[in-house]
Amino acid sequence: MENYDFITARSLLKEEKIVSENYIKNKVIFNIQDVREKIRSGNFELDIIKNISWKDFEIFCSDILKINGFSCINNVRFKSKNKKRYEIDILAMSKIKKILFSIDAKHWKIGGRSKIEGAIINQARRTNNLFFNSIKIFNYKLNLEKYKDFKKIPLIITLNKEEIKIYQGIPVIPLEKLDNFLLDFEGYIDLMLHF
Questions:
Q1: pTM of the entire structure?
Q2: I need a labelling partner for 187 at 20 to 30 A (CA). Which of 1, 37, 152, 172 fits?
């Protein structure tokens, strides 16, 4: 497969003045809306996404969430009462649906069951610590009290080409299914762990 040179448009804003919903592939701009439609129709080769950095993968996931009506904060770093430091890749909030997703964006394919179990346990721990044990949030002025009535749901987004699976109450969502999950997640809500 051809080696793609992906850069998010955000990194080129100063030079190119390109909006953040665009990405560049070999200096050709493509729009997140177009990618979303191609993913939905099954016409997008997800192997291309493997060639972007993990940080750009997180931004890409955030952009899909934003298109679906969520506001997002990336890379939330905090310290818990037990003095441990944590980071959550994406917090995605919907005021209308009173939902907050605490997302771990895995820019790799999750392999065996033990790797999945480790990832979901860690994400549940991070989510719980953010909302019930955090003493300091480092990089944002985030008023957690605003979200006390929201369902706080940990989830993982991966590059796997599989169906949506829920392990121990935590959804593991393949990137290519993220859009569908966001449209229908309320049908899964009773199966999901939430705080």
A1: 0.79
A2: 37
Query: 30 forms bridges with which residues in the sheet?
Result: 23
Alpha-carbon span 11 to 114, nearest angstrom: 36
Environment class of 194 (CB within 10 Å of its CB; exposed 0-12, middle 13-18, buried 19+): middle
Assigned domain for 24 exists: yes
Contact 53, 61 (CB under 8 A): no
Most confident of 22-26, 74-78, 105-109, 159-163: 74-78
d(CA 122, CA 119): 5
SS3 36: helix
- Does residue 41 lie in a domain region? yes
Task: Domain of residue 112: give its range.
Answer: 6-191
User: Is 1 part of a structural domain of the chain?
Assistant: no
Tally of domains within the chain: 1
What is the arrangement of strands in the sheet containing 28-31, beginning at the earlier edge strand?
6-8, 22-25, 28-31
Nearest to 44 by CA among 185, 155, 179, 157: 179
